[in-house]
Amino acid sequence: MTLTALRLTVKSGEEKAHQPVDGNPTPMWKKTPANCLFQVPSESQELDQARKLMENPLLASSSLDSLPNSCLSFRTSAFSFASSASFSSSSLPSSQMGSPAHVQKLIASQDDPLLAKEIFDLASRQPGFRHSYSAFHTLIVKLGRSNHFSLMDSLLRRLKSESYPVTPGLFVDIMQIYCNAKMLDHAVKTFLRMPEFNCKPLTKHFNSLLRVLIDHNQIRMAYSLFQNSDSLGISPNIQTFNILIKAFCLNNKLSIAYSLFNQIFKRDMIPDVECYRILMQGLCRKSQVKTAFNLLDDMLNKGFVPDGLTYTSLLNSLCRKKKLREAYKLLCRMKVKGCNPDILHYNTLIVGFCREGRGQEAQKVLDQMPANGCNPNAVSYRTLINGLCKQRLLEEAKAYLDRMVSLGLDPHCSTFHSLIHGYCQGYRIEEACGIVELMLKGGFVPHIQSWEAVVPRICDEDGGVRFDEVAKMAGKDAQLVGRCRQYGSSASLSNLSHGFNFR
Known about the structure:
- The longest helix is centred in the last third of the chain and has 15 residues, at about 450-460.
- Helix 8 (about 170-180) runs parallel beside helix 10 (about 205-215).
- This protein has a two-stranded antiparallel sheet.
- By secondary structure, it is mainly α.
- It has helices at about 45-55, 55-65, 70-80, 100-110, 115-125, 135-145, 150-160, 170-180, 185-195, 205-215, 220-225, 240-250, 255-265, 275-285, 290-300, 310-320, 325-335, 345-355, 360-370, 380-390, 395-405, 415-425, 430-440, 450-460, 465-475, 480-485, 495, and strands at about 30, 35-40.
């Protein structure tokens, strides 16, 4: 079958090929609203075109890729034609396909995996041509990611039959592909097939498989593989144990996690900092703080320096259990043991104290921060101010707000609202209006809850006279002031909200 006989019609019926216009060559294909036609050249043009495509694979790729997806069958037919009996081995020597590296780049550039496979097969049919291993690897991954598993497996078998040296990275990619397709048994079988390719799996490849299985909630399958690791010729390392311990801790299987931790010592291995931290985090999540501190002591006795995440977990757990004195002692102990507390550790303790209504102790923590080389941030101040307001320690809260603003930190509207609400609860309208004025001058828009707190108090106090000042600060007109006077002491958000456009 020659190129003259090829014509692809998308819809029923055929149309005549378009003729050249003004001497310009007719395009190879032309799409119309009714169909997609391949323009048939003369026999001599066929040979010239095919030879050009064969001599320059990149030209072939760009020419065929320009066809619409509906013409896919033509694209594959064109490649098949290029290698058909129309050309003998003498007319197209293998060198015209380009080097194996050139073909590999051409395959890698294809978005369509089936077209990439056609290019691969075309090159394979050329006498004396041998694909590079990279071409196999690239095509196998392309086919696998597009769920062409049978084609992927046939290429893998061909690698074996042609005695290519296979790298473990290919098997890791295939295992990931199978897991993403939820074909987890195939992923495990792929790992077990590695020795068939004279490719000895290493512990890091075993760990990669465990991670992939665990990421897909197949913890039991991963654990079963681990239990058979010795028969597979795999020697688990600390990272292997860390992967499994973390998985069981996150799934509330602390007994198995602790058993794995003890196995480390039975294998004459020593846990690392990450291993201790993972187990301590699991214990803290289950509120087993005492056991977690026993692990911390064991860790310190062995000469390890716990990292910041370890201390964060312990501090959070102590604060949740309201053991704030122990949490403060741990914070002080950190620096002695070689781990300087950071902003997260200090803020954790400030939140703990404020949550329990112990704002003055939170003040001490914040005030000590600069001397310890850690400056408070906006979260530190906001947490403390809100905590002090809840305890009606408004003067202290206002002082920290002023300090915060002077440092250029963003107080956030909720921080202002805490003070406004506190002042209004104590009928300190002057101070409440002062905070509103401070907000507006700073470019902050008060929450509707802030207006709900301050407006009724103003109306109760002087019938809305002072509200004139607030309305002017907010840029409101006299109609809104009149509405406030109209509702007087019974003013509420439901009645006044039509006059406010604050959010």
